[in-house]
Amino acid sequence: MPLGTREVAYDGDEQKAIYQMIIDAYNEGYLGTNLLGTDDGQERALFNTGKTAFLFMGTWYCAEDHKDDIVAAGKVHPLRMPYVNEEYKYNDMGGGNEAYYVVDTGDPDEVAASVLFLKYMTSEEVVNHFYEGYPAPMSVVVTTDSDVNYLASEAMAVLNESEVVAGDIENYDIASHMINTVRQALQQIPMGADADTIGETIVDLISEYE
Q1: Are 54 and 121 in contact (CB under 8 A)?
Q2: Which residues, 6+ apart, have CB-to-CB distance to 14 below 8 Å?
Q3: Residue 66: closest CA among 74, 54, 58, 77
Q4: pLDDT tops 60 at residue 132
Q5: What is the dihedral of CA 116, 119, 124, 129, to 10 degrees?
Q6: What proportions of the chain, in percent to the nearest 5, are helix, strand and coil?
Q7: Is residue 91 helix, strand or coil?
Q8: Per-residue pLDDT, 96
Q9: Pick from 192, 186, 188, 183: which is nearest to 27 by CA?
């Protein structure tokens, strides 16, 4: 990934164009009117009670307690993350529950143990058991007939369209702090920062770790 290896600069034109898209979304009101004054729990509460139009959230949202909210009423449905370039329409980024990995450490015993554990974790019995208690999209096919919420099934249908899946930013960047560094810089948007300032902030923060 060119950005992670610094072949593409965080303060370059390509990245600044992305920052500007986020700034434009904020200015149009798509990110709310009190972005820094509302925490994650409050944002969820607003959405779950029908006071906001949409929520950017991972698939774990499907498995949360929805007994008394708009999910229980069948009013929430998943959509693909908006894309900018057509070629990325079916690309997804996600965390650990969408894929399992085995890393070759060079130790054959460790690799064999990892493969054995992977086979166990992806076995039909274990996957079904997990899904019954935590109904969110899984990395392998679920065959249980248990009564799980509709949202998990709809989210899985969206993910089944995926052609490319990438991990979180820290999996590709040469510096593990980058996910927090970028978040910190983007938090300047509600305070009026422009795209140039955000790019400069990220580059300055990177230099502090070097």
Answers
A1: no
A2: 8
A3: 74
A4: yes
A5: 60
A6: 45, 5, 50
A7: strand
A8: 58
A9: 192
Q: Which of 158, 204, 162, 210 is nearest to 181 (CA)?
A: 204
100 neighbors 122 (Cβ within 8 angstroms): yes
**Strand (E) or helix (H) holding 166:** strand 164-166
pLDDT, position 97: 55
What are the tens digits of pLDDT across the range 175-195? 888 889 999 999 999 999 999
Instruction: Please give the Cα distance from 87 to 5 (Å, whole number).
Output: 22
Residue 177 near residue 208, CB atoms below 8 Å = no
Place of tokens 């057509």: 86
List the structure tokens of 75: 């009013």
User: What is the predicted pLDDT for the residue at 77?
Assistant: 96
Residue 16 has pLDDT above 60, yes or no: yes
Domain ranges of the chain: 37-186
CB under 8 A, 24+ apart: contacts of 96-105: 97/59, 97/60, 97/136, 97/137, 97/138, 97/139, 98/59, 98/137, 98/139, 98/159, 98/165, 99/139, 99/165, 99/167, 100/139
Tell me, yes or no, if the pTM score tops 0.90.
Answer: no
Greatest Cα-to-Cα distance within the chain, rounded to the nearest angstrom: 55
